[in-house]
Amino acid sequence: MKSLYIYIIVALLIIPVKSHAFDDFWGQTGHRVVGKVADAYLSGKTKREVKRLLKRQSLAFVSTFADEIKSDKRYNEFYTWHYINMPLDENYENSKKNSKGDLVTGIEYCKKIIVDDNASDDDKAFYLKLLIHLIGDLHQPMHIGLEEDRGGNDFKVKWHYEDSNMHRVWDSEMIEKYDMTYTELADNADVLSKKQVKAIQEGSVIDWVNETHQLTKKIYASAKPDENLRYRYSYNHFNTVRSQLQIAGIRLAKVLNELF
Length: 260
Ligand SMILES: [Zn+2]
What we know:
- It is a single chain.
- It is built from twelve helices and three strands.
- The chain is mainly alpha-helical.
- It has a single domain, classed as P1 Nuclease (Orthogonal Bundle), CATH 1.10.575.
- It has a three-stranded mixed sheet.
- The chain is globular and about 50 Å long.
- About 4% of the residues have low confidence.
- The chain binds zinc ion.
C-alpha cells in the first residue's frame, strides 16, 4: 500500500510537467532572450512607461506569462493568439483566417488596449505581457505551420534518440541542448550595425509573419518523419534560432517604442 502511495505521488509530480512540455511554445529560455534583447533597443520614454506598467518586472520576466496562463480555463479565449496555421505556399493575406483569432489579430488587440486612454493600468499591463510574448511566438517558424499537423506538433521526430516533434525541436530542444542561460544567449547575440537594425525593424506585423513563414517552409523540408535528429541538425539550424530570437527582440522594441 505504501509503495502505491509513493507511486501515485511520483506520478502526480511527473505528469503535469510532462504534458505541459508537449504544449510548449518558444521555450521559456527563448522568450526570455527576446525580452532581454529588446531592452537594449527601447527608448528612454518607453523604458520608463514599461517599467511603471510592469511594476519594475523585466521584459524577460513577463515574457512567459502568456504561456503560464494557458492551462487556466479563464484565459481560453487567448489560446489561438499564439499561432497561425496556413499552407506552406500561401501568405497571410490570402490564407483562411482563424475565426477565434491568431497572432496577427492578437497583437493588434494588445496594441489597441495599451494605447486606450480608458483602459486601466492593470489591463494595459496584462496586454503588454501578452504582446511581449506574441512578438516572440511570431518569429518561431513552427508557430506559422500547417493546420493538419498542429504546427509540427504531430510531425514526430526523434531528438537525440528521444521522442519529440518538429514544433518542440524548434521551440526548445535545440536551445536547451545548447545549454546557455537566456542572459548568455542575449549577450552573445550577433553585433549588428544601425543600418542592419533599421532594416530588421522595417515592415508590418503581416510582413514579419510572411517572412517567418519562408523559414517554416524550409524547416518542413529539413527533416523526415521519425528521423533521429542530432548534432548535425543543430549545426545546420541553431544559428537560425539565434537569429530569429534576436530579430524578434529588435522588432519587439520597435513595436513598444511606437506605442509609448
Ligand atoms: Zn506562446
